[in-house]
Amino acid sequence: MNDQIAHNLQEVTRKIEDAALKAGRNPGDVTLIAVSKTKPVSMLLEAYEQGCRDFGENKVQEILEKYDRMPADTRFHMIGHLQRNKVKYILDKVALIHSVDSVRLAQEISKEAVKRNLETDILIEVNVAEEETKFGTRPEDTISLIREIAQLPAVHIKGLMTIAPYVEKSEENRKYFEKLRQLAVDIREQNIDNVKVEVLSMGMTGDYEVAVEEGATYVRVGTGIFGGRS
Ligand SMILES: *Cc1c(COP(=O)(O)O)cnc(C)c1O
């Protein structure tokens, strides 16, 4: 179908609104990130035409290839694991780096940002389900990590991100989204300078409605918009 992306975007947007209202939240507080990894620019442009401005990518190379071919008000979000030696390539091309989970990576971001006179916003990736195969800081280490990163110049913590486990029923992930939200509350109570925890990046195609009910401010939806990836 020709207008499949438009149709999918309408449906995902409606479900986000319903989930927000159900939880007594303002739907305007949730931003949909269209996860466009592996998809051609033509498909991103289709989503752009439907009003989408936020796109999620997990590879530096792919951001570089797509960046110049998208309109200037496109916001790219780095949602994948970021190697320190690649930070320099994307710092001026991404609106937000969702996947910071070490002081060393934050130091590299800070160093490059200072050098180029940029201010870079980041999220701390938390492995809430404590899956061995996943990146992200352990929940119990998050506050001390944030305290260290908060002292670095030109890098600003805006919130938390998590990738929940792959599950059959989205309800199974509710406890992890709840845990990330609670962790954000705990961090806010610490009143750390240079740290805001307003952003919660959580929820993917399989579970974004539950994530919105639990307080997500960014949901990252790929398959549900662009179809499956090969
Ligand atoms: C691929 C990816 C998504 C989107 O996954 P879908 O299940 O296709 O919605 C979201 N977040 C991250 C970090 C991803 O790598």
Which keywords apply here?
230 residues; alpha/beta; 8-stranded parallel sheet; 9 helices; 8 strands; binds pyridoxal-5'-phosphate
What is the average per-residue confidence, as pLDDT, rounded to a whole number?
Answer: 97
Work out the strand percent. Answer: 15-25%
The set of bound ligands, ions and cofactors reads: pyridoxal-5'-phosphate
The helix tally amounts to 9
Secondary-structure content class: alpha/beta
The sequence of SSEs as H and E is: HEHEHEHEHEHEHEHEH
Rg, alpha carbons: 17 Å
Tell me the total number of β-strands.
8
Q: Which blocks of ≥5 consecutive residues have pLDDT under 50?
A: none
Instruction: Determine the N-to-C terminus distance.
Output: 18 Å
Largest β sheet strand count, sense and barrel closure: 8 strands, parallel
Sequence-ordered SSE layout with sheet pairings:
Elements: H1 4-22, E1 31-35, H2 41-49, E2 54-57, H3 60-67, E3 75-78, H4 87-90, E4 96-100, H5 103-115, E5 120-125, H6 142-149, E6 155-161, H7 174-189, E7 195-201, H8 208-213, E8 218-221, H9 223-226
Parallel strand pairs: 1-2, 1-8, 2-3, 3-4, 4-5, 5-6, 6-7
The structure holds pyridoxal-5'-phosphate.
Describe this structure in words.
The protein is of the alpha/beta class and 230 residues long. Helix content is 38%, strand content 18%. It is built from 9 helices and 8 strands. The chain has helices at 4-22, 41-49, 60-67, 87-90, 103-115, 142-149, 174-189, 208-213, 223-226, and strands at residues 31-35, 54-57, 75-78, 96-100, 120-125, 155-161, 195-201, 218-221. It has an 8-stranded parallel beta sheet. Helix 7 links the parallel strand 6 and strand 7. The chain is globular, with a radius of gyration of 17 Å. The model has no long low-confidence stretch (mean pLDDT 97). It binds pyridoxal-5'-phosphate. Pyridoxal-5'-phosphate (PLP) is lined by residues 35, 37, 58, 79-80, 163, 204-206, 220-224. Pyridoxal-5'-phosphate is lined by residues 35, 37, 58, 79-80, 163, 204-206, 220-224.
